[in-house]
Design goal:
The protein contains eight helices and ten strands. The two termini are 30 Å apart. β9 and β10 form a beta hairpin. A four-stranded antiparallel β-sheet has the order 2-6-4-5. The chain has a three-stranded antiparallel β-sheet with strand order 1-7-3. 47% of the residues lie in helices and 24% in strands. The longest helix has 27 residues. It has 212 residues and is of the alpha+beta class. α4 packs across α5, α6 crosses α8 and α7 packs across α8.
C-alpha cells in the first residue's frame, strides 16, 4: 500500500500524514460495476482513490438516478465527507466505472487531521470546491443546454474518465445516467453521428470530435 499511496498522494501530503494514512488505512479493490457506496448506507470510512474511476449517482423519490460526477486517482468523495461529518446516511451511490483501488480511512481521523495537518485541510476544502464546481456545471447543463449538447458533453466526459474515445455503452446505459428515455438517447446519438461527432456500433460509441 505504501507505494500506491505515495504515487497518488505523495505530492500533496507530508511524510507524517502519509505514514498515518498507511497505519490506519485499508486497501480495497473493486471490479467494474461494483457498488462501493449504496443509498442510505451508514458511512464510517472515507475513500482515497488510488486508481480507476468511480461514478457518483443521485436518486430521486421515484428511484430514478442521475449521474452527478466522477472521481479519479487522487480524489475523495466530498458528499461522503459531508455524510460522515454530519453522521447522516449516504445520499448518493458510488459505482466503480472501471476496476478501482482505494484506501478507506476511519471517519474519526478526518477531524483529527484537519487540526493536525494543513495539507489535509487544504485537500478536504479543495475536494468540496471541485465537486461544488462540477455540480454547478451539471446544473447549468440541465438548465441552459439542450439535450443534444448535454449528450455530447456526457460522451466527452466519459471518454476523458475512461481514457479512451472508444466507449462500450448501450443506449439504455446512457439513458439511465442522463435520467431520460432510451428512445430519446437513440435519436440524439443518430443526430450526433450525422454531424460527424461520433460513430455508432453495437453497444459501442466512438467519440470523433474529441481532443484527449
Amino acid at each position: 500500500m505504501k507505494q500506491e499511496l505515495e504515487e497518488a498522494f505523495g505530492f500533496m501530503f507530508e511524510k507524517e500524514l502519509l505514514e498515518e494514512i498507511e497505519s490506519v488505512g485499508v486497501l480495497r479493490k473493486y471490479k467494474q460495476g461494483d457498488i462501493l457506496i449504496d443509498y442510505n448506507e451508514t458511512l464510517q470510512q472515507i475513500p482515497l482513490l488510488i486508481d480507476g474511476a468511480v461514478k457518483i449517482m443521485r436518486q430521486d423519490e421515484k428511484g430514478d438516478e442521475l449521474a452527478l460526477y466522477y472521481l479519479e486517482r487522487g480524489d475523495t468523495c466530498s458528499m461522503t465527507l459531508n455524510c460522515c461529518l454530519g453522521s447522516k446516511k449516504s445520499e448518493i451511490s458510488a459505482v466503480a466505472e472501471t476496476d478501482v483501488i482505494f484506501i478507506s480511512i476511519p471517519v474519526q481521523k478526518m477531524q483529527d487531521w484537519m487540526q493536525k495537518y494543513q495539507t489535509w485541510m487544504a485537500f478536504v476544502f479543495e475536494s468540496y470546491n471541485s465537486r461544488f464546481n462540477e455540480l454547478l456545471e451539471s446544473i447549468d447543463n440541465l438548465a441552459f443546454n439542450k439535450m443534444h449538447e448535454r449528450l455530447h458533453k456526457y460522451l466527452e466526459d466519459k471518454a476523458l474518465v475512461m481514457k479512451s474515445t472508444s466507449l462500450n455503452l448501450s443506449h439504455q446505459d446512457i439513458a439511465n445516467d442522463m435520467h431520460t428515455s432510451r428512445v430519446v438517447v437513440s435519436r440524439l446519438l443518430k443526430s450526433l453521428e450525422n454531424e460527424g461527432l461520433i460513430k455508432l456500433g453495437r453497444n459501442k460509441i466512438e467519440v470523433l470530435d474529441f481532443d484527449a
